[in-house]
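Cross-posted from the bioinformatics board.
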Amino acid sequence: MEIRKVGIVGAGQMGNGIAHVIAAAGYDVLFNDISQDALDKAILIIDGNMERQVSKGKMDASAKADALSRIQTTLSLPELGQADLIIESATERETVKQAIFEDLLPHLEPHTILTSNTSSISITRLASRTDRPEKFMGFHFMNPVPIMQLVELIRGIATDQPTYDACFSVVERLGKTAASSEDFPAFIVNRILMPMINEAVYTLYEGVGSVTSIDTSMKLGTNHPMGPLELADFIGLDTCLAIMNVLHDGLADTKYRPCPLLTKYVEAGWLGRKTGRGFYDYREEVPVPTR
Ligand code: NAD
């Protein structure tokens, strides 16, 4: 099945990256959010990020103009019914995602494939509440989307092969690499990454090391480009905690117990870069460790 038109729901930090790479690969994009402000901001961010690619010689100016002209924003979810593929990337809350799919269903073409960029919610459960569980799967991009090479493709229990193949071809056309994951809590990347971040927070909590010594150890000792606490701030501490809770609840193993210090940061509203403070304080020019 050929995909021409892609509907993207949610114009947050992931949605703008997804719209960027999908439009740059030549697809028409219908880009939806409940907030006009979010859509306007997303277009400005895409424009700025594409401009950076032009100045680095990674994209030419006419390709940028073409890509931007292929993105049509809309506050009306039913308009996305014309799309061949929907990528839902709204807020990580199951009730929000479920309502989006329910509202879309009456407007969809019979062939439309539904996907979600969720980091942790069960694909099988989201799919089971639609009229097409065999045409439903996880399409999980990494942050920041224009830079990161990987897309995790997650099959729900009912996902059929033509649906998987169609999504795989989209990933190839984006010039990215797909890794296939079965639908278990947090899939592959976050199943491995989040316990490491959580362990880094325990290491801090138990006083084994300071923020600086933990991040320096992992950067210089294991060649990671970012330390685990810096990375947690980049992802968002609320997101990290939510994923640890999904692992803990879904796998019922105490090894996934979220560190109480991570919970405390989230309770304080210190969610990382997006709120200006997390394991580092970003309010000055140079980030300062908060412990
Ligand atoms: P975000 O908070 O930056 O953006 C969410 C957007 O969804 C907002 O613009 C909001 O207005 C919009 N929205 C909320 N309800 C909506 C509705 N009913 N219809 C349309 N739009 C709606 O969040 P984000 O970081 O972009 O995350 C989006 C999804 O991507 C989540 O499922 C998240 O788990 C996943 N994800 C996030 C990351 C990450 O590093 N942040 C990485 C991979 C996947």
